[in-house]
Write a structure and sequence with these properties.
By secondary structure, the protein is mostly beta strands. Helices cover 1% and strands 48% of the residues. It has one helix spanning 357-360, and strands spanning 10-12, 24-31, 34-35, 43-45, 54-57, 62-65, 69-77, 80-86, 100-102, 107-110, 113-118, 120-121, 130-136, 148-153, 156-162, 170-176, 185-186, 190-195, 199-202, 207-210, 215-218, 220-222, 227-233, 241-246, 249-252, 259-266, 272-274, 278-283, 287-295, 298-299, 302-303, 306-309, 315-322, 327-333, 340-341, 349-352, 364-370, 385-387, 391-395. The strands form eleven sheets. Strands 31, 32, 34, 35, 37, 38 and 39 form a seven-stranded mixed sheet that branches. Strands 10, 13, 14, 16, 17 and 18 form a six-stranded mixed sheet that branches. The chain is elongated. It starts with 9 loop residues before the first strand and ends with a strand. The model has no long low-confidence stretch (mean pLDDT 93).
Length: 396
């Protein structure tokens, strides 16, 4: 029942005559045992139905019409009824928004064998519920909606002659009717696995990282029941050392120097594929060596993390650091707990003008030194950072 629309139900009947029998079909539809006026065709559409026309059946918890319908089909030969037949009694079922009742399950087939996924909607989804299948390619993130592509319609999805290349793909079904076209119900996803010689989907790529960081390596290989062997080499040509025989994911911790890596994948029938090698370039992490306070180009003594300065000259803070391509961010704090980046403070030195010393008196300063690629604070960032000591500036 859709608010604001004329909700009606249409019945249709199909009948066949025995071979050799002649005559014309005639139809009469009935409601609650009484013939319905002018309802004499193979189809019949009810009057407008409202919520009040339905009642709950406690046996299956579904709403059905209070009225009962049936149809009598007769065969007329020269204006004489020679035979007739009555359909079973039936009611109108009230539709609910389409919903998945039975989710698809994982499927395992051999190479070039048909793979079949099935799903089933609730009874109250209606016979016209639409089943839309979707696929998420192996190696893609199933939580990202953009990775799901339409793959076919119907209660059953058949993948003809599935190949190893498709192994690892995920499939799910969305179901909807007129009540939830824009918000279909989505099944859980099921995995397709195909037995056969493994196929490398993505070869290893060159990686740049920084010493002291962890690195997760991933192999994308289509196949079934695969074992992975991760190997490293100093030159990428000889002396390959096996690090692990485990999963398609491998974590290297606290990397120190540049190396090459590759993987080997094989199944239970010992069918083997070997990837190309790729280089992991490890750059030097940043490390702060010290922080110096200068006034009139002379060092200012620092005691207990504070420096006493005069108000007649600029104060220069200078940080020294090692590492690959260090960058700088000077920060200021009133309490040593909450730090604010200083606008324009992006060099290895930061100058406090003598005209600002009164305003900055008693505040603490430090420098964050960092390197890397990507935006800090996001998953794309790869790099290292270090902080100098905090120094409080005090006017004499």
């Amino acid at each position: 029942i859709i608010e604001g629309k004329k909700n009606k139900a249409t019945f249709a009947i199909k009948s066949t005559k025995p071979k050799g029998e002649t005559g014309t079909y005639k139809y009469q539809w009935y409601k609650n045992g009484e013939p319905i006026a002018k309802a004499t065709k193979a189809t019949y559409t009810t009057d407008v139905l409202t919520e009040a026309d339905f009642e709950l059946n406690p046996d299956d918890n579904i709403y059905y019409s209070k009225d009962v319908y049936y149809c009598v089909i007769s065969v007329d030969v020269k204006k004489q009824i020679i035979t007739s037949k009555k359909t079973e009694n039936f009611k109108v079922m009230k539709l609910d928004p389409a919903k998945i009742l039975v989710n698809p399950v994982d499927v395992l087939v051999s190479d070039k064998e048909d793979a079949i996924f099935t799903a089933e909607a609730t009874k109250t989804s209606g016979v016209k519920a639409v089943y839309q299948w979707q696929v998420c390619a192996f190696g893609s993130d199933p939580t990202n909606l953009k990775n799901w592509k339409n793959a076919g319609k119907g209660k059953t999805l058949t993948i003809k002659k599935a190949t190893v290349k498709l192994s690892g793909n995920l499939y799910r079904c969305q179901v909807y009717n007129d009540l939830n076209k824009k918000t279909p119900d989505t099944s859980t996803y099921a995995k397709l696995e195909v037995k056969g010689t493994p196929i490398i989907k993505t070869q290893p790529k060159a990686i740049t990282t920084y010493e002291g960081l962890d690195l997760e390596l991933m192999a994308l290989v289509s196949g079934y029941d695969l074992t992975y062997q991760w190997q490293v080499s100093a030159n990428g040509k000889t002396d390959w050392e096996t690090l692990s025989e485990d999963d398609f994911l491998f974590l290297l911790e606290d990397i120190e120097s540049t190396f090459f890596y590759r993987f080997v994948a094989y199944n239970d029938e010992n069918e083997v594929v070997e990837s190309k090698s790729a280089k992991v370039t490890v750059k030097a992490k940043v490390e702060v060596q010290g922080l110096e306070v200068l006034q009139n180009k002379l060092p200012v003594e620092v005691n207990n993390y504070s420096a006493k300065v005069v108000s007649t000259a600029d104060v220069v803070l200078s940080v020294s650091a090692t590492g690959d391509s260090p960058k700088y961010e000077w920060q200021v704090s009133d309490n040593g707990a909450n730090w604010t980046p200083i606008k324009g403070g992006t060099k290895k030195t930061y100058t406090i003008k003598k005209t600002n010393l009164i305003a900055e008196n008693g505040k603490m300063f430090r420098c964050k030194v960092y390197n890397g690629t990507g935006k800090i604070g996001t998953s794309t960032y790869i790099g290292t950072e270090d902080f100098s000591d905090a120094i409080m500036i005090i006017l004499k």
